[in-house]
Amino acid sequence: MADTDTLTGTLTGTLTAAATGAPDFSGWSCPMPLRDYPRVVMGHGGGGAMSAELVANVFGPAFASATQAALADSAALTLGGARLAFSTDSFVVRPLFFPGGCIGDLAVNGTVNDLAMSGARAAYLSCAAILEEGVEMSVVGRVAQAMGAAARAAGVEVVTGDTKVVESGHGDGLYLNTAGIGLIPAGVDLRPQRARPGDVVIVSGEIGLHGVAIMSVREGLEFGVEISSDCAALGGLVEAMLAVTPDLHVLRDPTRGGLAAALNEIAAAAQVGVTIVERSVPVPPQVANACAILGLDPMYVANEGKLVAFVPREHAEAVLAAMRAHPLGAQAAVIGECVAEHPGMVVARTALGGTRVVDLPLGEQLPRIC
User: Which of 1-5, 39-43, 244-248, 257-261 has the lowest mean pLDDT?
Assistant: First the structure.
């Protein structure tokens, strides 16, 4: 039986260096997937427990700094008296084009959203492209045009970048990396550690659309209706929420690992419990049907245009109304609350009146979704 720390992904362990500089796994607590995998596997990039262990035990100790402690979607920094949000992300989605978007607008929107989760309005982006030898120039052009259109729609400029080419067979067409910076308004302090018992948990709309859209085209599956990605820039929605009150506690975009991973990460960071009502989570019928056929849980399926918010109870009704007045929050719903019980754990009340633990996923049900 896994203990509470394992269930929430707050796994412990230390990383020391031997004389050769190799990691010493002997001090890590069990179970530790990294100990069982001497080589990187796809699960290490899935946004679940294996990703968290990789960061906590390999990259974290190597880069140790006070500013990385929050481990949020973007880092909040102070520079010259200004509060900045800074984020970077790499995109390796396969296929490059999918219903509702492509790797180009996904790269822009993904980084804009990471900044928005700190309350920042994105100002500037960088773009680095790794192209595979032999990829059609028309494909590169379509991706670049999509990036430009997405940047204009989000009100952000792509101001610097880099291009590299790798040999045929080593790049899967193309990969993108984007980094972004934006200003955090005065009085805004959005961090997973700020979740408090009594907070109301709100999700901005229907979940699971992006992951199922990617799966449908990748695997050639048909579900009777086309399912499109929810890929969108959330900056405007966040501004509408902050206009109600700057005292929102936490925002998170539930991408890899889905809503389940986002809730678990917040619960672990703040050491609070989260209780959700399963039937209140908005799952569109097409996603529910596809997941039922494939044996997947929509709670773990990736999104690219949704957010989850932890809002003080006294502001929840007004924030929900503001979200529903925005096109990207029209289907926003209260799905649960933050509680003092079962700290670090997410629990769902089922339609049958029971409860179940919503674990942090180990890896990713469907890799390469962003």
Answer: 1-5
3-state secondary structure the chain: CCCHHHHHCCCCCCCEECCCCCEEHHHCCCCCHHHHCCCCCHHHHCCCHHHHHHHHHHHHHHHCCHHHCCCCCCEEEEECCEEEEEEEEEECCCCCEECCEEHHHHHHHHHHHHHHCCCCEEEEEEEEEEEECCCCHHHHHHHHHHHHHHHHHHCCEEEEEEEEEECCCCCCCEEEEEEEEEECCCCCCCCHHHCCCCCEEEECCCCCHHHHHHHHHHCCCCCCCCCCCCCCCCHHHHHHHHHHCCCCCEEECCCCCHHHHHHHHHHHHHCCEEEEEHHHCCCCHHHHHHHHHHCCCHHHCCCCCCCEEEECHHHHHHHHHHHHCCHHHCCCEEEEEEECCCCCCEEEECCCCCEEECCCCCCCCCCCCC
Let me know whether 117 and 39 are in one domain: no
- Give the range of the structural domain holding residue 90, as residue numbers without chain letter: 75-183
Residue 243 has pLDDT above 70, yes or no: yes
pLDDT digits (tens, 9 = 90+) for 353-365: 899 999 987 766 7
Is 139 within the bounds of a domain? Answer: yes
